[in-house]
Amino acid sequence: MLFHNDARIVEISFSLWEGKGKKNQITSLINPETQIPPMYTRINGIDDKMVKNAPTFSEFWKEHGEHFQNKVVIAHNLSFDLGMINRELMRQESPPLGNPGIDTVPVLKSLLPREKSHKLSNLASALGVSHETKHRAKDDVLALEEVLSIAMARPIESLLGELAVTFSLWGGASSHRYFRDSVMWCQRTESPLDIVITEKNEDEGLALIRKRIERPVCSSKRVGEFEDLPKLPWLWKDIQKVVIK
Fold it and tell me: pLDDT value at position 3?
């Protein structure tokens, strides 16, 4: 398979949370197996020497990829972060992730409407959260955890359970690049796609419904474009999870 996006991951960090709080923090530089352009080194400070002996994405994923299974993923600009992971997975001919996820950008816009900018660094500064090493994976994760906790006025682990379900409504697939990755994969491998969508029921409120798409189609540059609506009305549902068969 050919992919036009040549951007590669050079560092990964994620936290594992459970009901009692943070369980673990995993951080690693990643060898992209290609030269890092100077413009990116100027942004994150990571150069070729730093990643020379680091694991490749494939090596990292073999050891840690299981942590993503059956998990709700929380990220600031979720579609970008999981989109990058999915590009790497598809490069090694593995199916992309379809996890339910919470994008903290719209969440924090709702919780902090008076802030002029909802970039992570600006929110951290406004809330007095330390975020000195910007664009480094671990520091970004730690800053987001603190910003989100302050904005919600409750600990991060409170996002587990019913609240996570509420926040993880995608609000339509058009804004989530990594969902497009799933459609592209199924289209190229001729695989069916199962989606879990939410539908409103007058008597019971929100209900979760699983629907199979036998021949998913990506007919535009971004899944969910208005031109796709007549042919692909399911794209405009509140999609909670994607399962590739």
Answer: 42
Each residue of 4-16: pLDDT tens digit? Answer: 467 899 999 999 9
User: Both 77 and 153 in a single domain?
Assistant: yes
Domain that holds residue 212: 169-245
For the chain, give the secondary structure using H, E and C. Answer: CCCCCCCCCCEEEEEEEECCEEEEEEEEECECCCCCCHHHHHHHCCCHHHHCCCCEHHHHHHHHHHHHCCCCEEECCHHHHHHHHHHHHHHCCCCCCCCCEEEHHHHHHHHCCCCCCCCHHHHHHHHCCCCCCCCCHHHHHHHHHHHHHHHHCCCHHHHCCHHHHHHCCCCCHHHCHHHHHHHHHHHHHCCCEEEEEEEEECCCEEEEEEEEECCCCCCCCCCCCHHHCCCCHHHHCEEEEEEEC
Shared domain check, 180 and 92: no
Q: Which of 118, 137, 165 is the last residue of a domain?
A: 165
Residues 146-165 pLDDT 10s = 999 999 998 888 887 766 66
Domain count along the chain = 2
Is residue 4 located within the same domain as residue 102? yes
**Residues 125-148: tens digit of each pLDDT:** 999 998 878 789 999 999 999 999
